[in-house]
Amino acid sequence: MRAIFFSTTFRTRLILQQCLISKRLNSIYSPSYGPGNFYHLDHVDLNESKFDKILIANRGEIACRVIRTCQAMGIKTVAVHSDIDHNSLFVKMADEAICIGPAPTKLSYLNEDAILNAVKSSGAQAVHPGYGFLSENTKFAKKLSDHNVEFIGPSSESILAMGDKIESKRIAKKANISMIPGFDGEVNDVEHCVQISRDIGYPVMIKASAGGGGKGMRVAWNDEEARENFKLCKGEAASSFGDDRLLVEKFIDNPRHIEFQILGDKQGNVFYLNERECSIQRRNQKVIEEAPSVFLDDITRRKMGEEAVQLAKAVGYYSAGMCTVEFMVDSQKNFYFLEMNTRLQVEHPITEATIGIDLVHQMIRVAKGHSLRFKQEDIKFHGWAIECRVYAEDPYKAFGLPSIGRLTSYKDPSFIPNVRCDSGITEGSEISLYYDPLICKLTTFGKNRSEALTTMAQALDAYVIRGVTNNIPLLRDIITEERFVKGDITTKYLPTVYPQGFKGKMLNDQERLSLTAVAACVAVKSSIRDGSFKNMLRQTVRSLPKTYTYEILLNDKKVLCHVKASAENKQFEVQIDDNIPVFIDDNFKLSDHVIHAHVNNEIIALQLFKMESTGNVTLIYLGTKYELRVLPEAAAKYMSIMPEKKAIDYASVLISPMPGIVKSVNVQVGQSVSDGQEVCIVEAMKMQNKLTAGRAGKVKFVGIKEGDTVEDGKILIELE
Length: 720
Description:
Blueprint: E1 2-3, H1 8-18, E2 53-56, H2 60-73, E3 76-82, H3 89-93, E4 96-101, H4 112-122, E5 126-128, H5 138-146, E6 150-151, H6 156-163, H7 165-174, E7 182-183, H8 190-200, E8 204-212, E9 215-220, H9 223-241, E10 246-250, E11 256-264, E12 270-282, E13 285-291, H10 298-314, E14 323-329, E15 335-341, H11 348-355, H12 359-367, E16 384-391, E17 393-394, E18 401-402, E19 405-406, E20 409-411, E21 419-423, E22 430-431, E23 438-446, H13 449-462, E24 464-466, H14 472-478, H15 482-486, H16 493-497, H17 509-530, E25 547-554, E26 557-566, E27 571-576, E28 582-585, E29 595-599, E30 602-611, E31 616-621, E32 624-632, H18 633-636, E33 653-655, E34 660-665, E35 672-673, E36 678-684, E37 687-692, E38 697-702, E39 709-710, E40 715-719
Parallel strand pairs: 2-3, 2-5, 3-4, 5-6
Antiparallel strand pairs: 1-4, 7-10, 8-9, 8-10, 11-12, 11-14, 12-13, 13-16, 14-15, 16-23, 17-18, 19-22, 20-24, 21-23, 25-26, 25-32, 26-27, 27-28, 29-30, 30-31, 31-32, 33-40, 34-36, 34-39, 35-38, 36-37, 38-40
Helix pairs in contact: 5-6, 6-7, 8-9
């Protein structure tokens, strides 16, 4: 155990982020928004009893989130961490830090005995579990209770009742909650799963009983998929939650996913804090959430909220911010109970933004035995909030396969008004294959949805991430896509809008012209810089041309570009083929993290991602990374005689689409395989991914074995 001390600068930054907002007791305040002014802490009553020390049994951004509120309340914190997390932000923020084991979650963050030992040695009076890991683990909550340590969440009885998806459905049925047809018992084996699926009728959802976050959850449309997905879900459930029990229910095709936040205390008060729309998903994991939902009217909202409270009361539920009742809603606004999560949700910031209550603060107060100081009628929406989950993922691969690496450059957009960044990383942080690849929960607020979306676009354009691939291109495209802007969304949004997968932002003619013109100006500024003497009192330029001519290639389309640079007017005049000239102010540097280019008096935001001596210029524009080849006209004519790179036969070579750990290898050298046959399974960030043969043939090479760690792009198996 060791104490962590901050510099004055670091403490000041944390205080600015927290921005304690005072409010009169017994009332709900309207949120105030500004740079860093997004952490709403209810008024702290100094005469109210509190815990002296809280241990956070989690990592990353949620550990940082809990620590911030504890600091504002004057409560000391203890961080527990794996050995590879020793230098993480949450460890530095905590007052004490204890290593509980190696990187694999079973040996660290799911290691109940190690965490209990940390509780004892630190003298912590309470444990906040965050979300995931042990947050819905009945046995862990019971062990804490047996040691007179408060579990900041529901009682072990409530977790057993509602955290377990099988038991929760039985209770919901008894409480007359609107239900999805399904089997409310435990699935014994593969054939039992197939029989249940047939009885219910395909399609069905196979899901982990103790699950959440989209892990251990897959749709089956026939017997073959039921068998296959049973195996994959069982493995993911064991890896993520330490519990491999599964259930099966009817899959409602093309619904909305809307959830209600429940707030309660030990005195029997239970309220709903309205809804969150969570329909934008990939692989059953939420990507973008918002509050309120564009779909619900006041009557439906009240009905859903009252059913959520009715269900919570049916299990004797208490604890603030730790219960979310999730519903599927069809096009006629019929709603069906999906599941209850007895924990703090990932997307809780959008509720805090629109309701004005710090949920973590209330959780800690309630765990200490204090009552809530408001009534249901006090809960009102104030404005609109949208959250984008920024992941270290490649959005061009199945809408997001994990990426790992070190963040060589990192600048979040929290300086923009009405922007909140919940993150557990800093520049230099490592994204590991052992844990969830979340970089940041980016939340924006506005008086209405349009204002919140506009701010989100600005925030995503200003977000600088280098060192790992990220999903900002997909997020940026979604928030300006026509259907999303109209609010016409369902859980099938991604495959419907992008049936061939995400291919990047499709530029219109004007956007393409602006991007090309800026690329030409970047090339000119680079040429001027290269022709200058360094360490001179004034810039000296030798024989610089009046006009620069480039051939620019973008997406297989070539244009000829003439650029005139005016030092007097600090402006570039760019002529692209026969188009009207484009005027761009010379107001940026090549070293700027974000370039705010003035193009014909319109400001557009870009990032210069990379510039090579070969003429390759990579710019990030509207979220998407574009690779342009910018060559002087004299050099461009030689490109036609350059040899072409030999293309890889991807049908004969199986390449790992992401970094991960090999869970199984199902073929050997000399074995014949059919097209689409499973050859291996690679686990990345606790998600199991089945890899298949691209064609029929005989296995020539197998370069992996079970337990191997593989890189993105590694050749795994080759066919003759």
